[in-house]
Amino acid sequence: MKVGLLRAVGVATAVYGAAVAAVPDLLARPSGLVDEEGRTGRATRTSLRPLAWRDAVSGLAMAMAPDGPALRTAAYVRIAADFGDAVLLGATLPGRDRKLAAVAVSVGWGALSVAGLLAGRRREVMRPRAAEPRRG
């Protein structure tokens, strides 16, 4: 597990989530969730804020969880959220280009967390264990 990468993804996600919670236009505009004048409707802002807080909190969990099972669990939650976003936004956003961009961004962030979890595993598998002393 590459703790530094997971923590960096967590911090970036937490900052972005907090920013979108404060200013939902940061997500609404590139996603095409605005009216003809480029304004984000009240219902859209209301709908995006819980999503943004989910990102902020799950990112914070990745940034602060102790190394080991807690950090792995936080990363799994983040991966599920990112890949879930890819599926849902890819299926529902207006316009092919926006859908593709949302899928690419979501899968990209999820892949970073997957890479953080998998990094170092090969070394662990290939590194021979020290022989344990026999008791007896």
Kindly summarize this structure in a few lines.
This protein has 6 helices and no strands. With 136 residues, the chain is an all-alpha fold.
Describe the structure.
This protein is mainly α and 136 residues long. 76% of the residues lie in helices and 0% in strands. The chain contains 6 helices and no strands. The chain is elongated and about 75 Å long. The model has no long low-confidence stretch (mean pLDDT 92).
Oligomer: single chain
Biggest sheet statistics: none
The sequence of SSEs as H and E is HHHHHH
Radius of gyration: 19 Å
Mean pLDDT: 92
What is the count of β-strands?
0
Distance between the termini: 36 Å
Query: What would you call the structural class?
Result: mainly alpha
Instruction: Please give the share of residues in helix.
Output: over 70%
Low-confidence stretches: none
Shape: elongated
H/I helix tally? 6
Give the percentage of residues in beta strands. under 5%
SSE arrangement:
Blueprint: H1 3-22, H2 25-31, H3 42-64, H4 69-92, H5 96-118, H6 121-126
Helix pairs in contact: 1-3, 1-5, 3-4, 4-5
Brief descriptors of the model:
136 residues, mainly alpha, elongated
